[in-house]
Predict the structure.
Amino acid sequence: MIAIEIPDNANCEPVDLRVFHDLERALPARRVRLERGPGGAAWYDVTGWMAEGRPCAAWVQKVDDSGDGTAFLLHGGDAGLRLQPAGRSAAWRLEDPAQWGAPFLIVGERDDVMMDGADG
């Protein structure tokens, strides 16, 4: 079981307690493919984020998705996740307008997540 509760923080909106039934162990994640806007799907670097303002590991884990089968949960630190377009050399920081925060993400396909240490 994975319990996620994100308090009010500078990175993303808070989330009341959410509980997910894990089906596999968590693996470190470094990129996720998302559809944001009219350009279609693109890759984004992802890191976990801590409330004190520093990055930490981001994790992906196969979970039960209520009556819809299975999905993949991306989760990070006590202040959620932080994302930016893939391949940028910018440091992780709240003040960067090309970055944004999310409490967690649910992704439908394993191919939409690149594990840490994978090529690409």
Remarks:
- The chain has a mean pLDDT of 92.
